[in-house]
Amino acid sequence: xxxxxxxxxxxxLFQQRAxxxxxxxxxxxxxxxxxxxxxxxxxxxxxxxxxxxMSGHSEQELSQRFAKLSLDGLLQKxxxxxxxxxxxxxxxxxxxGYS
Length: 99
What we know:
By secondary structure, this protein is an alpha/beta fold. The protein has helices at about 5-15, 35-45, 60-65, 80-95; strands spanning about 25, 50-55, 75. The longest helix has 16 residues, at about 80-95.
């Protein structure tokens, strides 16, 4: 697991270690860089990166707001660790040959 304390830090780590990353669980509110910019930058480096967005907003609102960003999953807060694990597994399943 690679952890970052801001959007900018996350992008820097992703630039350095993209080959190690299967999925990016990303919080909607990040200091230093908004999620849309961070996601667009990551997708420029690695178009197939899987991203799961976590937020306290409703899934319907997030789906509409981020429809053009091609998210691989949404997770509404609060959630249990098992919920995050399930959502990440669902996001990476196509790239891992799972159905």
